[in-house]
Amino acid sequence: TxxxxxxxxxxxxxxxxxxxxxxCGLRHTVYAVNGDRYTGEWLDNLKHGKGIQVWKRTGAIYxxxxxxxxxxxxxxxxxxxxxxxxxKKVYTGWWKNNRKCGYxxxxxxxxxxxxxxxxxxxxxGWGRMYYQDGSIYEGQWxxxxxxxxxxxxxxxxxxxEGRWKDGKxxxxxxxxxxxxxxxxxxxxxxxxxxxxxxxxxxxxxxxVPTQYPIPKV
Length: 217
Fold this sequence. Notes:
- It is found in: Cytoplasmic vesicle, Secretory vesicle, Acrosome.
- The protein is mainly β.
- The protein contains 1 helix and 15 strands, in the order αβββββββββββββββ.
- Helix content is 4%, strand content 58%.
- The longest helix is centred in the first third of the chain and has 9 residues.
């Protein structure tokens, strides 16, 4: 009987080209169509491991850990100064799924900075915020606002210790007027004291004490 020979199936060339294009392991700089560039490690054609990403449009740089194409792990994000072109760190800390998550420090353009916990890119958990006017808030945060127990210290050393909600004093708290030598203890609602007691507190050491002490009840 005659033997029928079938031609061996040839693999399309693009299959081989696609295999060669699959990025895995440490690679030199890879440029995206929009001009962004990445130098670092890959896995299954995704950024994975240590790497540096530079965004062309903003000039921003991320240097740190990646998992399956997203910033995940420890890393720092910096942007160039519009005038000097020198890079300034914006955030250094932990990331998850491309967002700030865990402990980290953010530097804001007006000289303020926050160090503490993040969740989903927002300040959440425990943290300390240094404001432009010299005030410092230390305590609990929720979705980018002081929420829970916390202390706000003003530039003149006066301070509030107590409960917060949506970034405002809300609930039981104490306000120390150290400049006058007085203490107000009571209940607050949306930053306004509703009821409480005002007593002398460290009046003898106060820089500008009230003219007369509060009489005893």
